[in-house]
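Weekly sync, protein design subgroup
Attendees: M.S., D.O., the rotation student, P.L. (late)

Item 1: inverse folding check
M.S. brought a backbone from last month's batch and wanted to see whether the design step gives back something sensible before we order anything. D.O. pointed out we never logged the input encoding, so this time it goes straight into the notes. Structure tokens as presented (652 positions):
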């Protein structure tokens, strides 16, 4: 179960230095925060010279605090004409500041004219204080801050990246000993790239011994301000004992990918790859984008709440928050998908669930800007219509037109995207360093070193996957005219959903008919939709007597565990050939089909999962830090069903 996130308490010493009452220690030297960060971490890691002329450079910090080290690093990157193309800064923080306290704490320290605007940008982008990984982008995506909120003892083992430099920060070993243990340094060693360096303001004997045990070598140098000494060094293990090397970029001669499918999954992949400078060829069997389930008039987006903060809840939380940031970034660039006003109401299944979830929200300390329990009276006021029970309110949930989002993402790709419609992919085949995509007549229609399968039901067949465990679910929507009902003011979900659209109509649904191929609209399905919604919104029963209904049928692709398939494909023949050796394998042990990736089986949560899934795939291809914890990525791994078969000894 996820531990509740406890924010930092802001206090100041008499000299104005920010101070932590919890650790009885200061956040930075009284001599100066900026000067300390520049001397200890930049100079200590020989930056910026080590990142110059590189495509990617990654920094891992233990203890984000006020963010001063990040801001100084960002400023140095901006000032360097030979800077790396992309700077990743990954930092853990057990007790993050609130947005207001972050500004207050850093206000005096960042008076420097080159830093103050960056501090404001950081505060403007500051994430909701919930546990997990939060990816923020600056400088048009060239500076990426990945904040990991939670105890570093628990979170560092879940990260997956190749770090070029370590900032060993945090409060002093005497005041914050859990951040300086051998286990912490072992976690860092697992992520260290070749010639990775480190720097830290401390020269504690325990820290030196732990560094040596983890494979780091160090030297003592003059400290900053009143400190006599500090440590710098590099990762230089005598023996290679790591089971897996940290991730590297996929070796390709040309940064070109084929994306099969232009629904939510495919268009998100297109946007994330072209944002990194990749050229993309999209293949779509229909005459335009978003013609299948992604073509529904509207879709709702919200996190999934559970009493134990399950894997599914953690994944939807990460996806929901990342999607909101990405959509806002699109809008700032002038690409505006159609979406409703913020806010979404979920009605509890019964009074027991309403009470239990309210207690759960309190125990986790979820901030009200993320989710808040509401009484029946409050729910009726929010919805502006009668409701059966109370539930919970998502202030930043809502609805969006999926097709308009797909169009915006493709438009953002600009000239890096080649669109090809009315082209049906049937299979792929490896030829030297390329994957060739063939149509059903055996004609080669595209080739690239990377292929991403985002074509839902067809993905496993076209990719030749045997271990996919997907099925088709028919979903029929019902569209009620404005004069048929007293429509809710905001989207309401629970037993079905009701979404008030801009034209005054209300979208309700959807049925969940497993392996039902019927494409016709059915009156009984319309009645089913209305009756289920009426369990939440009693006035909806008035619509049952309508003479006819409009609607739409679409088919969702789902897996047996209801999680999507996102990430690199396994080389199934190679894995089966070595089935005996792989019976106790973990995901990183599996052989992979270089250049083949999947983003499909999103079920009814494509809006929440698509952007994050695309970012995960792009990060895997580029060898960048992953945007979510590794255990969550492994829960989405397209190879997970193969892995289960290998462990059971039934993979053939």
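Designed sequence read out in the meeting:
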């Amino acid at each position: 179960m996820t531990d509740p996130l406890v924010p930092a308490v802001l206090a100041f010493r008499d000299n104005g230095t920010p101070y932590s009452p919890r650790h009885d220690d200061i956040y930075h030297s009284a001599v100066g925060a900026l000067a300390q960060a520049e001397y200890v971490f930049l100079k200590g890691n020989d930056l910026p010279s080590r990142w110059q002329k590189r495509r990617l450079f990654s920094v891992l910090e233990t203890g984000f605090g006020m963010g001063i080290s990040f801001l100084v690093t960002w400023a140095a990157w901006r000032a360097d004409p030979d800077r790396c193309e992309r700077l990743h800064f990954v930092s853990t923080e057990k007790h993050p500041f609130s947005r207001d306290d972050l500004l207050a704490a850093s206000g005096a320290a960042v008076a420097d004219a080159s830093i103050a605007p960056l501090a404001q940008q950081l505060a403007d982008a500051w994430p909701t204080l919930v546990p997990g990984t939060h990816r923020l982008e600056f400088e048009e995506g060239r500076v990426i801050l990945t904040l990991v909120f939670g105890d570093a003892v628990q979170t560092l083992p879940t990260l997956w990246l190749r770090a070029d430099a370590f900032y060993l920060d945090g409060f002093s070993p005497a005041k914050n000993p859990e951040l300086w243990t051998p286990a912490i340094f072992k976690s860092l060693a697992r992520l260290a790239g070749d010639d990775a360096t480190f720097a830290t303001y401390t020269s504690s004997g325990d820290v030196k011994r732990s560094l040596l045990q983890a494979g780091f070598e160090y030297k003592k140098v003059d400290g900053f301000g009143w400190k006599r000494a500090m440590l710098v060094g590099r990762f230089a293990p005598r023996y290679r004992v790591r089971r897996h090397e940290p991730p590297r970029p996929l070796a390709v001669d040309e940064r070109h990918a084929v994306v099969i499918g232009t629904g939510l999954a495919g268009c998100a992949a297109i946007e994330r790859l072209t944002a990194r400078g990749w050229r993309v060829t999209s293949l779509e069997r229909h005459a335009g984008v978003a013609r299948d389930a992604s073509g529904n008039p509207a879709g709702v987006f919200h996190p999934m709440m559970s009493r134990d903060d399950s894997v599914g809840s953690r994944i939807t939380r990460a996806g929901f928050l990342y999607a909101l940031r990405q959509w806002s970034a699109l809008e700032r660039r002038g690409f505006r998908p159609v979406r409703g006003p913020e806010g979404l109401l979920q009605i509890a299944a019964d009074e027991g669930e309403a009470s239990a979830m309210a207690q759960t929200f309190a125990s986790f300390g979820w901030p009200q800007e993320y989710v808040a329990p509401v009484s029946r009276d409050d729910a009726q006021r929010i919805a502006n219509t009668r409701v059966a029970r109370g539930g919970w309110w998502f202030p930043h949930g809502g609805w969006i037109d999926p097709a308009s989002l797909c169009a915006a993402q493709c438009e953002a790709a600009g000239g890096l995207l080649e669109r090809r419609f009315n082209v049906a992919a049937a299979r792929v085949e490896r030829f030297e360093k390329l994957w060739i995509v063939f149509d059903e007549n055996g004609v080669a229609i595209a080739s690239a070193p990377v292929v991403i399968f985002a074509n839902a039901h067809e993905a496993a067949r076209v990719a030749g996957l045997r271990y996919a465990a997907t099925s088709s679910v028919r979903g029929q929507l019902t569209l009620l005219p404005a004069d048929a009902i007293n429509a809710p003011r905001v989207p309401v979900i629970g037993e079905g959903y009701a979404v008030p659209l801009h034209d005054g109509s209300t979208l309700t649904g959807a049925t969940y008919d497993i392996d039902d191929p019927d494409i016709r609209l059915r009156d009984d399905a319309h009645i089913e939709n209305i009756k289920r919604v009426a369990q939440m919104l009693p006035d909806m029963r008035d619509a049952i007597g309508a003479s006819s209904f409009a609607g739409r049928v679409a088919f969702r692709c789902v897996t047996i565990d209801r999680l999507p398939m996102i990430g690199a494909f396994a080389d199934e023949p190679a894995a089966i050939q070595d089935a005996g050796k792989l019976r106790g394998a973990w995901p990183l042990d599996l052989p992979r089909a270089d250049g083949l990736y999947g983003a499909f089986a999103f079920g009814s949560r494509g809006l929440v999962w698509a952007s994050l899934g695309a970012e995960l795939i792009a990060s895997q291809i580029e060898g960048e830090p992953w945007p979510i914890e590794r255990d969550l990525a492994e829960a989405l791994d397209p190879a997970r069903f193969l892995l289960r078969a290998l462990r059971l000894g039934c993979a053939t």
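Discussion: The first strand starts at residue 11 and ends at 12. Residues 311-332 form the longest helix (22 residues).
Action: P.L. to compare against the previous round before Friday.
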